[in-house]
């Protein structure tokens, strides 16, 4: 569906995207993951024809975005990071313009607008000025715009940034629904979001593709940085005594030792997190000390990045 | 293109500046008609248009300031880039919408000579000839304003630069009488112009090699021509300033001459600035 080959984008001496190649197949939700400034938006802008590339090719359904922009652009809908909305219009007027610009006419356009308004649940606000809408609704208008023309690929750049938690959940649900009929590519710097929505994840670090995998496998990329955190109702010396007896545990940090409730972070250097949790639980139970909380701190994006970028620099050395 | 055109047009009808533009144009034509045609009892409507042309210096930049700058500010230019339409279509659509907005008050103005003709002898051919020329000159200024708007995302800045540039163009003939007509003066002025052009190219393309190549090329050409035959430059600068003035050419129409070279000059200016606007939009894809 989408083929990106050796994509490079330089701004003067700064390389925003560096020899990026990947292929996106039809019918999945893909996530672009990367810290701010990693080149996610630049890549998306190039893929949608908003930006030129210094080198490389992007093909959408066999059409090169630089050579046949018209055909390629008709196959995708794009929502940039900041929804490109005309504030002095209503969603209906706005969608009418976008639809006409996409070459949809007359009754067909009216039908499509009706469908996308229903799908993005904009019925209640369709005749209000966009400037009066909340950020969540504006985001939906942006998504509705991308859906016009029924493109095979929907590209969303950070679709949940700046929304409140309820709006985030609503937009995520909407994206999941879209994923059933379209190929969706979204970018995010929040790992949990990508884990929740995406079936495949591309991690971009400093303009390079660092990993391309399913989210479950990505967690396994983290070999050494998992921690188990617990809150125990015990004195600090008691905790230290108990932990010393557990073989797999060697490195821990004790926080806020007041109140008789102590939080401890245990670093897992080897072994399965579940085994360590079990040993900790049993050891405390044996000494009749209560655990008020026991959590595995899962993959954290920063750790993934530290891991991946460290790997990169090692290769470079 | 039709989508952009319709969209722009409906936008203009919702915007106050459009009505201000029309109201000012009509008001000044009205004042002009009162002074020349009614109080002084002159039967030539073209004098009125000659009088009004100065108003363009202010109202055209105010009309055109938002045309592309606003898209950049609202980040809606990203939408235009991602839609299956070319930047040429975007610029043409926007420009045609501006022409329609400009044409509406002009249609009302076009009735005035007919009204005057009811009460006396009006030479309608020169009246309508100059209205046509007035339209094309305004269209050239609007193309200029469109280009200036494409350079920035700040509407106020676009309007300010637009007024400055058009005022300079308006007064360039009067200024031409005061600038040096010597060969050295003209050559020096051309060198300065070359440097300014270089700065503009640098600002627009951010390409240093191109900037140096163009600027050096211009300077060297001026130098070579100056040292081989310096008479070429004698009186060149004042002549150039007179030639470039859009307004000066319009006064020929006011004086009753339908000057085809002027029409072609206006059309060239329109094509040139629309081309530059397209390039300016296209360039943002590359920076």
Automatic annotation (TrEMBL), chain A:
Alphabetical UniProt keywords: ATP-binding, Nucleotide-binding, Transport
Keyword ATP-binding annotated: yes
Domain ABC transporter per the UniProt entry, residue ranges: 2-231
Keyword Amino-acid biosynthesis recorded: no
Superkingdom of this protein's organism: Bacteria
Molecular function GO labels: ATP binding; ATP hydrolysis activity
Pfam families hit by this protein: ABC_tran
InterPro entries: AAA+_ATPase, ABC_transporter-like_ATP-bd, P-loop_NTPase
Family: Belongs to the ABC transporter superfamily.
Descriptive protein name: ABC transporter ATP-binding protein
Organism whose genome encodes this protein: Parablautia intestinalis
UniProtKB/TrEMBL annotation, chain B:
GO CC terms of this entry: plasma membrane
Signal peptide region: none
Keyword entries, A-Z: Cell membrane, Membrane, Transmembrane, Transmembrane helix
MF-aspect GO terms: ABC-type transporter activity
Localization: Cell membrane
Domain ABC-2 type transporter transmembrane as annotated: residue spans: 43-227
InterPro entries to which the protein is assigned, alphabetical: ABC-2_transporter_component, ABC2_TM
Stated name of the protein: ABC transporter
